[in-house]
Amino acid sequence: MPRYDYRCRACGSTFEVSRPMSEASAPAACPDGHDDTVKLLSTVAVTGRGAATPPPSAGGGGGCCGGGCCS
Fold this sequence. Notes:
The protein is mostly beta strands and 71 residues long. It has strands at 3-8, 14-18, 37-39.
């Protein structure tokens, strides 16, 4: 279940709420009971453990236009 970060405008505390994506835009009350909260923008970093693979070459073997104009 996704977690959403919120900040309370009344007391300044930051808190997380776990809820289904279907309720992502629903308001969330501060743990101290304040209703004036704002959802924060979260960034997600996805990393892998695989080796980086260079993109395939366009072919041609070099030269000014892949070898076609330098004959």
